[in-house]
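Re-run requested by the PI after the first attempt was lost when the workstation crashed. Everything re-entered from the original request form. Ligand of interest: dioxothiomolybdenum(VI) ion.
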Amino acid sequence: MPDPMNPAASGHHVRLGSNSGQPMTRRDGAAKVTGTATYAADNRPEGLVHAVFAGASIARGRVTFLDVAAARAHPGVIEIMTPDNRPPLHVNPDEKFHAFAWRTEALQDDTVRYAGQPIAVVIADTLEAATEGARLLAPRYASDRARIGFDQGTRYDPPAVGIGAEADFAKGDLAAGLSAAAQVTETRITTPLQYHNAMEPHAIVAEWTEDRLTLDTPNQAIVMSRNAFAQYFDIPAENVTLRSPYLGGGFGSKAIIVGPQLLAILAARMVQRPVKLVLRRDQMFGPVQHRGATQQVVRLGMEATGRLTALDHHATASTSSFDDFIEPAANASHNLYASPSIRTRHTGVRIDTGTPGSMRAPGEASGSAALECAMDEAAEALGLDPLEFRLRNYAETDPASGKRFSAKALRDCYAQAAARFGWADRPLAPGQMRDEDGLLVGWGMGTCLFPAPMFPARARAVLRADGTAVVETAGADMGQGAWTALAQIAADGVGLPIDKVVFHSGSSDQPDGGVAGGSAHTASAGGALHAAGGDAIRQLAEIAAADPDSSLFGTGNTGVTARDGRLYRSDDDSRSDSYSDIMVRAGLTELTGTGSGARDPANEERRAMFSHGAVFAEVKIDPELFQIRVTRMIGAFAAGRIINPHLATSQLTGGMIWGLSFALHEEGVHDLRTGRAMNADLAGYHVPVNADAPSVEAILVDETDPYVNALGIKGVGEIGITGTVGAIANAVWHATGKRVSSFPIHIDALMG
Ligand code: MOS
């Protein structure tokens, strides 16, 4: 039995003789903590100038005047870019030319669609001059009333939600399910606008050399974005180099191209100098996406035995006035609980904000919050323990697709987390527990689920005659440790210890590493690296098998295994040859393999692919002030093969802390009259600090999933958020007897 307290050190998941499975620390950690890691804004090419955009102070209307003369007269100001003079773009920024393209603002006209929208760009010798120039523009507007809040916006039926997901879904007969129910509960939950707020603000350094473009900008989908930038400027993709070696967080907001990036590139073209544009913190509350607000209604019908008969989840979500990204919240109810009837629906509401986008567990985070609160309320109605209620209803097969998934993994998660938490001692009724200081104590739980997608990705592995290898894929390390986990996979792919492998990543010059999103990066780019290594080894084995001087001569179909820089005959370990010797005899200095990450379509046909988990939370609440503290969280997660238990644990605990942040802290507040973000800084937009999360544990549950991909890898990045939000709200109920109806949970919601 592994030690759940210390999975990394217990031997659990560690496969000796391989790099994968080892709890290595981040390869880029020393560079980051010593300040030598070069983030986008740290680049200062020769001749660099600075761009600052002026943001609209109204949320809807037109710009009628900009004092360009005053700005231009300011010392150090080089140029002012407005809709009147900005260089042309080949793609209309109001066009959606591929699935990951949002309509964006690149000074195409004088319309204002949300507060903070860029309306002009000032380019100057210094950041200070550009900032002051932007202030001197003193815009005037023809202003319309801002529409902020669900009651102000225009409702519509979205054709799709998220990125191309179905807006409506029905399975079975909901009306029959509800009328057959012994009990029906209805749970209403609202969630606020949330802003990604990565530690590193969006930044770009753009430089043109004739029709070649060099970009230093953090990006979660390097080659996809490189290709899109090339389209905007009508140049061949190979003319664009996008470098993104370090990202200070992305959370989904750095996966697609945003307006300020285009503006910097346009500015660089205009002044024929390299341009740096870095968003201020307040500028990140508008043009660079957010999570839309939701209003959700979940109705559950249950038999007296506790079996669900009906699950109805309707989510209303906010989007901008000019583009569609509907937080796919209700779709979180598709795959988890085995109700014979399930209906999910979405309604969009257009308000005057920037366009939302994918933000950590888009849909699952807000949707599972509502679903898990609803499950708790239903358990209460039945007089059942919330865990017991879930054990009676979790799905053995995916209710939406009918495909099988690993229900055992979820059972193991429930069991291990509950045991570690001490759930068996929980009184059923609320308000029963107090700690030694008289604080109200409550325990709650939630189920975690996240899909295990894969994105197309490619990689290259070059074996060198000196016994080393260079392995490359354009992957993105946002702090999650991708470069470390991917290097571990790459080293195993070429059968070398990790210190003999040079791992290159983070630039569009490398093979497409796919999207670092959807918790799919390790599986996708890792699959490609593994395949590329395998391709190189296969070629090497063929050379050895054909070489009479090799002890592997004639091995042919017998096959070889690659280990520590040598090939061994699979059926006879005493016959081996080193990579170097094979290559030197063949007169090769290097040998290149390529590969792509892929899933077996036959498996995809038959298997539903998800990571599973369960989170248990303890809260303590002051009985007079109602201040809420999450004193303990324990989650157990099954996510297939764990490449690096140290980093995976960090991802999972980070996800749980994000869930805590969702439950108690984060909320983007806009002024209802002006539409402006009122808390556009990290003093007003709250996120948890260490003191808010004193005890967070993630247990790695063993799971072998041979179907998901060749390496058996699923994601760990986002699942920790799901389940956790509900677990905390349910713990608040257990402490106080008060059901939560909106997030973040405010003190005043518990008063009276
Ligand atoms: Mo993401 S929303 O997959 O960083």
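Saved to the shared folder this time. The first helix runs from residue 29 to 33.
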